[in-house]
Amino acid sequence: MNVLNKKTIEDIDVKGKRVLVRCDFNVPMKDGVITSDERIVASLPTINYLISEGARLILCSHMGRPAGTGYEAAFSLAPVAAYLSKLLGKEVKMAADIVGDSAKALAAELKDGDVMLLENVRFDKRETKNDPELSKEMAALAEVYVNDAFGSAHRAHSSTAGVAEYLPAVCGYLIQKEIKYIGGALENPKRPFVAILGGAKVSDKIGVINNLLEKVDTLIIGGGMAYTFFVAKGCTVGTSIAEPDKVDLAKEMLAKAEAKGVKFLLPVDNKVGLEYAADTETQIVDSDKIPDGWMGLDIGPKSQEIFAKAIEGSGTVIWNGPMGVSEWDAFASGTIAVAKAVAESGAVSIIGGGDSVAAVQKLGFADKMSHISTGGGASLEFMEGIELPGIAALNDK
Prior knowledge:
Layout: E1 18-22, E2 29-30, E3 33-34, H1 38-52, E4 56-60, H2 78-88, E5 92-94, H3 101-109, E6 115-117, H4 132-139, E7 144-147, E8 169-171, H5 173-187, E9 193-197, H6 206-213, E10 218-221, H7 226-232, H8 247-260, E11 263-265, E12 269-273, E13 282-286, E14 295-299, H9 301-311, E15 316-320, H10 333-344, E16 348-352, H11 354-362, E17 371-372, H12 376-383, H13 389-392
Parallel strand pairs: 1-4, 1-7, 4-6, 5-6, 7-8, 9-10, 9-15, 10-11, 15-16, 16-17
Antiparallel strand pairs: 2-3, 12-13, 12-14
């Protein structure tokens, strides 16, 4: 599948047509109030373009994990409709259902440039089963389908994939950008290509490491997952997080890197703590000298320098996962050093994964990055080389 070859909203005529747009409005809520509007704001370029082209918009999304047995007030998208109305400066009409009488009536009344929002698609249990009946009923509301919810593109649900079988299907600007940056990096990267992977477990990123070893010039490993590789190299790791059942796999990956001529960089020193706590006693030790009873909680200063040097002068950088327990200030410096190095590298830089994104935003480096991915699980599966149903279902150019 050539993901770089998918049709976008600019490849079709939408004037006067009812356009079903799958957005990602899965926003955090507290007491009925939206606490972060990031995902709503991210959908605006696509929505505004379609309005300006005279489309009749039917927006849809999921939110949270309702039971799928019908309406649940806590998961209603009504607050999103109200919020979006303010942002767009025009009323976003809210349907009381997904494919029922309310949705049908509102869709039939739409004029060019009008916007409506269906109720949470997961109120219908058929959604997550990718039920063809629900997909057909949703498709019947519209004449064109646009997927702009990259965060859900790895799910084969009715609103993300099923509906595309019954309508002309294209991507919005958000998915287009994800395809351009992540797909472009994997298929035709500017070299040297450096990937930085962090986070707690090797098991979460086996597929990603394997796929990237086929493509990168340098692979940098930090965070909790590094300790499984230390064990594979015969080091003791104290009480650090490590996965004994993944040690053989780690050995295989080190051997694969060597065979492919990929530089495989692990931390050479670590900041260790006596216990897993923000204010624990700490010391800096070499990676092969972690004392018994101590756990690695961040990469050390020598590793920060080596990693920064490897990132310097790269053509493409993909970064997913922190270098340590970055939410605690005492163990954030490794992640900060990497964020700074990526920001200053001048490379095509792609940041994925909540913790890496949070670090980049907190440090004010977001505008120095080429692309900050909107999809956690989706961007990992994309990097793993897995076909994403929500993208595979779209029409090719």
